[in-house]
Design a protein that fits this description.
Order of helices and strands: HEHHEHEHEEHEHEHEEHHHEEHEEH
Bound molecules: pyridoxal-5'-phosphate
Oligomer: single chain
Distance between the termini: 29 Å
Helix content: 40-55%
CATH architecture of the largest domain: 3-Layer(aba) Sandwich
Radius of gyration: 23 Å
CATH superfamily of the largest domain: Type I PLP-dependent aspartate aminotransferase-like (Major domain)
Largest sheet: 8 strands, mixed
Structural class: alpha/beta
Strand content: 5-15%
CATH topology of the largest domain: Aspartate Aminotransferase, domain 2
Length: 429
């Protein structure tokens, strides 16, 4: 495949021939009447089936302490479940809160509470600041950006690299401007790049001087345990690093079982310093008398211990790793050597990051849609959906079945090559 010549090196006649060939391939693709969807990072039904024992649990109405889980109370969540996640996330049990099914809700609560009330280290609530800004590594998770946009928080971007966000770029933004109050970070197998934040980058981020005394790192470890290879990335121990740097309240850690058990009926986790945890629970206590402890107990019974979670994740890997391999194979077969696209080879997580020729991502998504292949809208991995280079596409291969991933990705490769040929021909005038 790599014996193909880069598209830019072709003469105009050769490029015209290439384009005609791709147009014919694309017409065949359209004629197949496909209806395939690579838009959202959802577990497939086969993955959800792995946890169906949950539907027959819990076996008792009492937790380990003897409390009746059917009743009110227990705001910080069940101790037995908090213990499992403390081990998995390398934090102290005392730092952990277990909540409802969505960690995104916990992130929303933390930020809205900072806006309304301020938190440890704040001089005033963020709503009383003239401007509030967040640092957003890009490409990133669209819902993080939508959450900020909804609250009127401005977003400033920094590049996401293989070992995490560019720490020099972050440090420069936060050093002088007290309006910069926080940043997003998906530290392990990031959405969508698959980046893993190195301990060195984590150390820089927790120790850098910030003009805002209440700067927060929203450490969203949604994919901490979601390995695709034997080389299992270990997340940096951010709470310990931050405490050691004298900034214990800077990071707030989040995780959930959305892609471990059920995406719609799992449990979520928050871990933070003692001050942050007390602050969070104080505000949570005004909104809830306690979490769904029946669900928490059935999760604790289902997992048994941290090793139970790891074993379950290995079974997820068996189902989804072949789909990621199929994405890579199709892109290599369709685009290898053309030098019009680069894509990630993630060792974990839920996404493949595809960068196409600058200025063609929107066209690729449009071509794919017209051939019955739904892709996440171009630009979605950027604040306000604006990718300045119009080149980034997030691929989510976990939900469709393997043959569908193969078919869809071969089609995507055709669309990428066709859009590139159109662009190069147009540029050549
Ligand atoms: N964080 C990241 C980085 C995600 O990719 C997702 C889902 O795609 C979530 C959070 C959502 O988490 P939850 O289902 O726990 O709300």
């Amino acid at each position: 495949m790599t014996s193909r010549a880069p598209l830019r090196s072709l003469s105009s006649d050769e490029l015209a021939d290439f384009r005609t060939a791709k147009q014919a391939e694309y017409a065949d693709l359209q004629a197949r009447g496909l209806k395939l969807d690579l838009t959202r990072g959802k577990p497939s039904p086969a993955q959800l089936d792995l946890s169906d024992a949950l539907l027959r649990l819990p076996t008792t109405t009492r937790d380990r302490s003897g409390a009746d889980v059917r009743n009110y109370g227990g705001l910080e969540g069940l101790a037995e479940l908090r213990e499992i996640f403390a081990e998995l996330l390398d934090v102290e049990v005392a730092q952990v809160v277990c909540g409802g099914n969505s960690s995104l809700t916990l992130m929303h609560q933390v930020i809205t509470s900072m806006v309304l009330h301020g938190g440890p280290g704040s001089q005033r609530p963020w709503k009383d600041e003239p401007v509030v800004k967040f640092v957003c590594p890009v490409p990133g998770y669209d819902r993080h950006f939508a959450l900020l946009a909804d609250l009127g928080i401005e977003m400033v971007t920094v590049p996401m690299r293989a070992d995490g966000p560019d720490p020099d770029a972050v440090a420069a933004l936060v050093a002088e401007d007290p309006a910069v109050k926080g940043m997003w970070l998906v530290p392990t197998y990031a959405n969508p790049t698959g980046s893993v934040c190195s301990p060195e980058v984590a150390r820089r981020l927790v120790s850098m001087p910030t003009a805002a005394p209440d700067f927060r790192i929203m450490w969203d470890n949604a994919y901490a345990l979601h390995h695709l290879t034997d080389e299992e990335a270990r997340s940096a121990d951010v709470l310990t690093l931050a405490a050691g740097a004298g900034n214990p309240d800077r990071p707030v850690l989040f995780a959930s079982t959305s892609k471990i058990t059920y995406a719609g009926a799992g449990v979520s986790v928050l871990a933070a310093s003692a001050a942050n945890k007390a602050w969070y629970l104080q505000h949570l206590g005004k909104a809830s008398i306690g979490p769904d402890k029946v669900n928490q107990l059935r999760h604790a019974e289902f997992f048994g211990d941290a090793e139970g979670v790891r074993a379950l994740m290995r079974r997820h890997r068996e189902i989804i790793a072949p789909k990621f391999a199929a994405v890579d194979t199709a892109l290599e077969q369709g685009l290898g050597g053309l030098d019009v696209a680069e894509w990630s080879h993630p060792a974990g997580g839920y996404f493949v990051n595809l960068d196409v020729l600058d200025g063609t991502a929107t066209r690729v998504v449009e071509l794919a849609a017209q051939a019955g292949i739904a892709l996440t809208p171009a630009g979605s991995a950027f604040p306000h959906g604006h990718d300045p280079r119009d080149r980034n596409i997030r691929l989510a291969p976990t939900f469709p079945q393997l043959p569908e991933v193969e078919t869809a990705m071969a089609g995507v490769a055709t669309c990428v090559a066709l859009a590139a040929a159109e662009k190069l021909a147009a540029d050549a005038g």
